[in-house]
Amino acid sequence: MSDKHPAKWGLTPQEMATLPTVFSPDLLSGQRFLVTGGSQGMGKAMVFLLARLGAKVMICGRTEEKLARTKSEVKELLGADISYRAMSIRDTDQVDALLDATFEEFGGLDTLVNNAGGQFPQDAIDFTRKGWAAVIDLNLNGTWWMMQGAAQRWRDRGEGGHIVSNVAHVERGMPQAAHTCAARAGVIYLTRTVATEWAPLGIRVNCVAPGAIATEGLSQYPPEATRRLGNVNPMRRMGSGWDVAEGVVYLSAPSGNFITGEILTIDGGMRMWGTVWPAGVPEHFQV
Ligand SMILES: CCCCCCCCCCC/C=C/C(=O)SCCNC(=O)CCNC(=O)[C@H](O)C(C)(C)COP(=O)(O)OP(=O)(O)OC[C@H]1O[C@@H](n2cnc3c(N)ncnc32)[C@H](O)[C@@H]1OP(=O)(O)O
Ligand SMILES: NC(=O)C1=CN([C@@H]2O[C@H](COP(=O)(O)OP(=O)(O)OC[C@H]3O[C@@H](n4cnc5c(N)ncnc54)[C@H](OP(=O)(O)O)[C@@H]3O)[C@@H](O)[C@H]2O)C=CC1
Q: Looking at the Swiss-Prot or TrEMBL record, what is one Pfam family this protein matches (predicted)?
């Protein structure tokens, strides 16, 4: 997929309704999930897979129209009912309201999936304070409000739970995306820390760390930012939202019962070879 910029990124609802999965159809029967950013991209793939496996699902995002469309597509293609709430994870009052509504509607929560996030490509030296703050607030603070809010409710109810946060492959840093690299590293180390603090509460805490994944979110980036994404790992192709969704289910289902503080990298090997350079390869690094 080198040098290509498709007219439309990501999986269609029909694909998400029919793609093969390694998991059995009743695996998550009765399990209650909350997926932030479930209205498109990887989050939407998770929602389709979770619904196919029998889970009850609540999704959120800022745009009501996208949430309502996802709900009706899941109903039409899978015959399943999901719930949604329009909100921003950056707003602590809205986070509390979402968590309260979810616990009330489902009578509890089994797994929180922190998937909402994003950034813009820019050299770190040029970040404005407002741009830096926006990316940290969304990806680090917003994710943390969700993690802490869910854990407090589980503790107060005397129940356990599981958190899985969608971060990014950041082991080698991320040139031209240092703000999101810093935020994702923050989430990774929060995860590794509270996995210990919250183990006595019966709460497992994990992350998935994707490399370049073809999703609708990429349509917000110009072709010069995305045309190299199929060439940034040894497999020399992009992953799909389904690859990440299956990783989330692996960690959340009984297959993950003895896994906490883990970062499951789903990147086609990008941690070993390949650099994104989302704003273009600087002359110094061209070969
Ligand atoms: C191409 C990938 C780049 C990252 C590299 C990651 C490498 C890993 C794999 C590669 C692919 C990863 C892809 C994705 O994650 S795609 C899915 C996620 N979706 C998005 O990223 C959506 C796009 N981003 C945003 O919506 C916003 O940037 C953001 C949410 C981060 C900010 O939202 P907010 O609405 O609060 O902020 P504003 O838009 O009002 O902007 C606030 C200030 O931020 C600065 N800014 C914003 N955009 C840019 C830009 N394009 N370039 C430079 N600066 C920017 C700016 O200071 C804004 O303030 P002003 O508007 O007042 O100037
Ligand atoms: N695509 C890729 O290659 C990679 C992506 N990632 C990360 O994985 C996650 C999912 O990515 P992807 O599926 O591509 O993203 P998309 O941009 O396709 O989807 C993002 C989702 O998050 C929601 N969202 C964004 N901001 C907020 C907010 N403040 N509050 C609540 N919901 C919000 C969006 O809905 P709405 O706009 O309506 O709010 C949308 O549903 C993101 O954190 C992304 O940065 C990491 C590595 C690689």
A: adh_short_C2
Residue 80 structure tokens: 């399943």
Output the domain CATH number for residue 213: 3.40.50.720
CA distance 185 to 170: 7
- 186 domain residue, yes or no: yes
Q: How many angstroms separate the CA atoms of 49 and 146, rounded? A: 22
217-232 confidence digits (pLDDT tens):
999 888 888 989 999 9
Which domain covers residue 210, as residue numbers? 23-272
Residue 10 included in any domain? no
CA of 211 to the centre of ligand 1 (A): 17
Determine the atom of ligand 1 nearest the C-alpha atom of 212: 9
Supply the residue whose CA is at minimum distance from atom 20 of ligand 1: 118
ipTM over 0.90: yes
Task: Indicate the pTM of the whole model.
Answer: 0.97
Domain membership flag for residue 16: no
Most informative mutation of 215, 226, 276 for ligand 2 (most atoms within 8 A of CB): 215
Name the burial class of residue 125, with classes exposed (0-12), middle (13-18) and buried (19+) by CB atoms within 10 angstroms of its CB: exposed
Classify residue 221: in a domain, yes or no. yes
pLDDT (tens digit per residue) in 164-223: 999 999 999 999 999 999 999 999 999 999 999 999 999 999 999 999 999 999 998 888
CA dihedral sign, ordered 188, 165, 266, 200: positive
Structural domain total, the chain: 1
| Closest C-alpha to ligand 1, atom 48 | 120
Q: Which residues line ligand 1 (CB under 6 A)?
A: 118-122, 128, 130-131, 134-135, 138, 168, 174, 177, 211-212, 215, 217-218, 220-221, 225-226, 276, 278
